[in-house]
From TrEMBL:
Annotated coiled-coil segments of the chain: 59-86
Keyword Coiled coil: yes
Organism of this sequence: Nicotiana tabacum (Common tobacco)
Keywords: Coiled coil
Protein name in UniProt: Protein DEFECTIVE IN MERISTEM SILENCING 3-like isoform X2
């Protein structure tokens, strides 16, 4: 039997093949154009529905992000208002303490002001220095100078950021640091450093901006180099603080001689002998650190203070980061001896003791400083959230218009698809 004579058996469960026959025109000719058009339109309608749903989901998701940013801002505003109320309450409490202590010694307050003014005058003598120009700006414009773009990030001059109880110790510490460091400007962040000095395309200093421009405007051209210290880039002290100590002095292990005894004449560490205004004891940096564990720890480290040169020399085996003695001896941190005598023109102001104020006063001051720091961080968070919200709303508006335009352009396909679905139902 030939192949042509063999019968082909189809399986009983074979699925029928649906063949769309083309339409015929009035003349009996097949209308292949209409057939192709209807097939393409049917596929386009399904794609339109799919893309429409996809765009709708994107718009919905962007709307949820906007809502989340709005809720975050609402929460942060509530947090900021709570901090404002707490700060106000504590400031009222401080006011009561100050009123009760008004009968305290006025001579000490006057001496404190005069000592600070004396240090400022000493800085102003270096009229062509960066510190002298900055102090001139502060003297002329007062508190408004802190809000200028040029100086708003400047915390102060090293010589003005600490106070020392004893004039002789103050001179010794100033001598140890040196004039250039005492005149150094302290900024909170690197942005403050960039504002103080700018450069042109060739890398030369722009004399019309920053401190150079400010100096020229007041007739004091800035000469030579000057030091600027960036607090946020300093590695802070990583140890503990002395418990219940208002000045947050560092709990550094006392030195020991090879025989295990304390060196005679040891008076303490220089970093703990500098008194710091309460406003700078806490949260001087965005990370929450104060000036003692950042600025002054990096300037003095574990510098020893001894009563006499003889005591200092006897303690050489346990001196690692330098030492000074009250009779003028100085050993640098790298075991370099500073000999001879030098007249110190610039020193730290003398401390003002607040002995008539209760311990709670300083604790409230600390809490206010901490809350103000938290408030600043909250405001920064609010600004970031607002920027994200504005960006999200902008993108949402664009995507929404894109979605509406898509619906308008493809409405005929979607209506046709829905009519076909209703007809088949």
């Amino acid at each position: 039997m030939s192949i042509n004579d063999e019968k082909v058996k189809l399986p009983i469960n074979a699925n029928p093949i649906v063949v769309h026959e083309p339409r015929f025109s009035q003349g009996g000719q097949a209308d292949y154009y209409s057939f192709a058009r209807d097939t393409m339109q049917n596929g386009t309608a399904e794609a339109t529905i799919y893309n429409s749903k996809k765009l709708e989901d994107v718009v919905h998701e962007m709307g949820l992000k906007i809502k989340q940013h709005e809720e975050n801002i609402k929460f942060l505003k509530t947090q900021k208002n709570g901090l404002d109320n707490s700060i106000l309450d504590m400031q009222v409490a401080l006011g009561k303490y100050q009123t009760e202590s008004e009968s305290g010694p006025e001579n000490e307050e006057l001496s404190h002001v005069l000592s600070e003014q004396e240090t400022i005058e000493q800085i102003l003598r270096y009229e062509k220095s960066a510190a002298g120009i900055w102090c001139q700006l502060k003297t002329r414009h007062g508190t408004q100078a802190s809000h200028l773009p040029l100086t708003k990030d400047v915390l102060g001059i090293v010589a003005m950021l600490g106070k020392v109880d004893d004039d002789n110790l103050s001179r010794l510490l100033s001598d140890y640091l040196g004039l250039e460091t005492m005149l150094a400007i302290v900024c909170k962040t690197y942005d403050g450093i960039k504002a103080l000095e700018t450069y042109n395309k060739e890398g030369y200093i722009n004399k019309t901006s920053g401190l150079h421009g400010l100096g020229s405007s007041i007739g004091r051209s800035l000469d030579g180099r000057f030091l600027v210290i960036c607090l946020e880039n300093l590695r802070p002290y990583g140890g503990e603080f002395i418990a219940d100590e208002p000045q947050r002095r560092l709990n550094i292990l006392k030195p020991r001689l090879p025989n295990g005894e304390s060196p005679p004449g040891f008076l303490g560490f220089a970093v703990n002998m500098v008194n710091i205004d309460s406003v700078n004891l806490y949260c001087a940096t965005s990370s929450g650190y104060g000036l003692r564990e950042t600025l002054f720890y990096n300037l003095f480290s574990r510098l020893h203070v001894y009563r006499t040169r003889a005591d200092m020399l006897q303690a050489l085996p346990c001196i690692r980061d330098g030492a000074i003695s009250l009779d003028g001896g100085i050993i640098k941190h790298n075991n370099v001896f500073a000999l001879g005598n030098r007249e110190v023109d610039l020193k730290f102001p003398k401390s003002f003791a607040k002995s008539n104020l209760p311990q709670d006063y300083f604790e409230i001051e600390r809490q206010i400083k901490e809350m103000k720091w938290k408030k600043e961080r909250t405001v920064e968070d609010m600004q970031r959230e607002q920027a994200l919200l504005d960006h999200a709303r902008f993108n949402f508006g664009i995507k929404k218009q894109e979605y509406l335009k898509f619906l308008a352009q493809n409405s005929s396909y979607t209506r046709q698809h829905s009519f076909k679905q209703e007809g088949s139902a």
